[in-house]
Amino acid sequence: MTLKLYCFGESGNAYKAALTLELSGLAWEAVYVDFFGGEARSDAFKSNVNAMGEVPALVDTDHDYTITQSGAIQDYVVHLSQKLTGSTPEERREVLRWVLWDNHKLSSVAGPTRFLMNFLPEDKRPKEVIAFHQGRLKAAYAVLNDHLADKNWIVGNAITVADISCCGYLFYPEPFGFDRADWPHIDAWLTRIEQTPGWKHPYDLMPGSPADRA
Amino acid sequence: MTLKLYCFGESGNAYKAALTLELSGLAWEAVYVDFFGGEARSDAFKSNVNAMGEVPALVDTDHDYTITQSGAIQDYVVHLSQKLTGSTPEERREVLRWVLWDNHKLSSVAGPTRFLMNFLPEDKRPKEVIAFHQGRLKAAYAVLNDHLADKNWIVGNAITVADISCCGYLFYPEPFGFDRADWPHIDAWLTRIEQTPGWKHPYDLMPGSPADRA
């Protein structure tokens, strides 16, 4: 089986797919996409990989199958590996619930906020937008922190793609208004993820980082 | 079976769950949540219905089961009814992909934008945030419009929960920067949804509307 993940280090959404692949035990390889050079929005990329013009995209060359959206890639990796999901139908729906929550409330806000605060020139950073997003994020961190107050993992007794989805942006060093010290239950859970055998930091797991462009 | 959906008319996320229930043919009833009066954020609601303090929430009283997040509710309704999903595993993953895309790119931006533009006092509407969100939404409408250029439905040959998710905010009359006339393929697809037997407008399907508070 040949699984190729189109990704770049700075993308927390790509990290969710990459970490899911890595922890699943399946063999996979990263294909670097020069996002900051415009590659994801090129006609070639849109025609051949993802019409939405985004990473991550997973290509299973053996099955001539391409799938995009981090949560759908996670679903395919779970399908192939039978790992990293709940152990009952109810647990699997609970995993889906948190993946959806992450997509709706956490990553979809954290990603743009981190982009605006770090990857735009300083004089082009929209202060009102950043402040608004940080307010929404604070509410999301509170929901996640409360949920983890009496749990090791988001669903059930082991790491699932729900954990991997929700942590997508939380290991990055660039500031976007998240400080682990403010959220003790999130902090302890991130430490548990870091201690999971096979875990890697996004900049170690995928090609490309701000250091390469410095 | 008794399915109770906690909802209110103005919520496009609740509409996704309500329309899925209605088109599934299952019996269900709406339980009005006074969102604008703060009910969803009350301790009672958080303790008894949804710790996240949001609608929609679906309670299946026969199975003592509660599920939240519109996409997870849709998954449960599909599980119960075996309707409104793809006909193969690949189609079902494609449905999931578009539900995730909607949660990440469309509804999660359209909802707050509509709120800021219509349900806040005029002097408290953050112009820069609204403009930023409308820019993101325009990119999302373009993706959806292009996808629908040669298709009747988002996935396969019939309406699925992917269609119901993506249309969640698009029937509302309050302005948020979406005009059907600008996006002909979206417009034709919305007409197909409206013509689906059983379809109802959000303010006809769920209790509560701006008219009630006028």
TrEMBL record, chains A, B:
Gene3D superfamilies named in the record: 1.20.1050.10, Glutaredoxin (3.40.30.10)
Pfam family, one: GST_C
Enzyme class: oxidoreductase
Matches recorded under InterPro entries: Glutathione-S-Trfase_C-like, Glutathione-S-Trfase_C_sf, Glutathione_S-Trfase, Glutathione_S-Trfase_N, GST_C, Thioredoxin-like_sf
Keyword Oxidoreductase assigned: yes
Record-level Gene Ontology MF annotations: peroxidase activity
Domain named GST N-terminal: residues: 1-85
Highest taxon listed in the record's lineage: Bacteria
EC number(s) per entry: 1.11.1.-, 1.8.4.-
Entry annotated with the keyword Isomerase: no
Keyword entries, A-Z: Oxidoreductase, Peroxidase
Domain called GST C-terminal: residue spans: 88-214
PANTHER family for the chain: GLUTATHIONE S-TRANSFERASE-RELATED (PTHR44051), HYPOTHETICAL GLUTATHIONE S-TRANSFERASE LIKE PROTEIN (PTHR44051:SF2)
Annotated family: Belongs to the GST superfamily.
Protein name per its UniProtKB record: Disulfide-bond oxidoreductase YfcG
